[in-house]
Amino acid sequence: IASVRLLGSKAKIPWSRTAEGLVITMPQEKPCDHAVVFKIKPKK
């Protein structure tokens, strides 16, 4: 994984990979109350 972004937010999203999978830490402020969408960019 190269990067993880929260669409609609300019906040840096902390993330890590563990043996169990991808762990994403949500920021305090959500860009929307109805849906949260992450853009996960793979390494090339």
What does this structure look like?
The protein has 44 residues and is an all-beta fold. The protein has one domain (3-41). It has strands at residues 3-6, 15-18, 21-24, 38-41. Strand 2 (15-18) and strand 3 form a beta hairpin. It is globular, with a radius of gyration of 11 Å.
Helices and strands in order, then pairings?
Elements: E1 3-6, E2 15-18, E3 21-24, E4 38-41
Antiparallel strand pairs: 1-4, 2-3
Task: Describe the structure concisely for a colleague.
The protein has 44 residues and is mostly beta strands. It is built from no helices and four strands.
Strand content: 35-45%
- The 3D shape can be described as globular
Content-based structural category: mainly beta
Largest sheet properties:
2 strands, antiparallel
Could you spell the SSE succession in H and E letters? EEEE
The residue ranges in which pLDDT falls below 50 over 5 or more consecutive positions are none
Write a concise keyword list for the protein shown above.
about 45 residues; about 0% helix; mainly beta; about 35% strand
